[in-house]
Amino acid sequence: MNNLGCYRPRRIPHRDFGDCIQSITYRLADAISPGEMQRIVNISQLQPTEQQEIYKRRLIEDWLHANRHGICILSNPVAARIVIDSWYYYNGKQYDLFDWVVMRNHVHLIIRVYENVQLGRIIGHWKSYTGRLISNYFSIQPPIWEKGYWDRIIRDDNHYHKCRAYIINNPIKAGLDNWPYVSTKWHKE
């Protein structure tokens, strides 16, 4: 199976290249209400065209940190462990897992995908598997996860360290002192 390169399955462009390090974010389906998402889209559209996606992304991140919309199931230790264990299952087989955080309503991680392994399939597996387990364990109606995900190729060591710092500081930014669901591991090219 070949890597897909750059493609746009929906509105968000994805980059699927083997042997590159990527930052990935995805969130719970109920993390942002439809009304709030429409407000975010409307505000983003006031920006210059080339800045709209970045601005929208920042507004979404700010909303996720400041609000507890939805059930925030990932703050439950069982749900968090389900997500974390799913990441470690293929670690060293399809990708290398470097840094991660499980927040109340979203996750961030940094991985290096191996050649001929498709990023979208990896994330699809994580979301399908964890969604099914969380849904069954907590008797929650699917979908658990929002469709899609956000990914970004890490350009160099400086960019990696910025992404790593973002992950480490994510719980602090959200007011979650001593948050247990964060792990960082030193990576050197």
Q: Hey, roughly how much beta strand do the residues contain? A: 15-25%
CATH class: Alpha Beta
The ordered string of helix (H) and strand (E) elements is EEEHHHEEHEHE
Secondary-structure content class: alpha+beta
Kindly give the count of domains: 1
By DSSP, the count of extended strands is: 7
* CATH homologous superfamily grouping: Transposase IS200-like
Share of helical residues = 40-55%
Distance between the termini: 25 Å
CATH topology: Alpha-Beta Plaits
CATH architecture assignment: 2-Layer Sandwich
Mean pLDDT: 87
The radius of gyration is 16 Å
Shape call:
globular
Main sheet: strand order: 6-3-5-4-7
Poorly predicted segments: none
Largest sheet features: 5 strands, antiparallel
Topology:
Elements: E1 5-7, E2 14-16, E3 20-27, H1 34-44, H2 52-66, H3 77-89, E4 95-102, E5 106-113, H4 119-138, E6 150-153, H5 157-173, E7 182-183
Antiparallel strand pairs: 1-2, 3-5, 3-6, 4-5, 4-7
Helix pairs in contact: 1-2, 3-4
Structure overview:
With 189 residues, this protein is of the alpha+beta class. The chain has one domain (5-31, 70-183): Alpha-Beta Plaits (2-Layer Sandwich). It is 40% helix and 19% strand. The chain contains five helices and seven strands. The chain has helices at 34-44, 52-66, 77-89, 119-138, 157-173, and strands at 5-7, 14-16, 20-27, 95-102, 106-113, 150-153, 182-183. A five-stranded antiparallel sheet has the order 6-3-5-4-7, with helices on both faces. Strands 1-2 form a two-stranded antiparallel sheet. A hairpin with a 6-residue loop joins strand 1 and strand 2. Helix 3 (77-89) packs antiparallel against helix 4. The protein is globular, with a radius of gyration of 16 Å. It starts with a strand and ends in a 6-residue tail after the last strand. The relative contact order is 0.22.
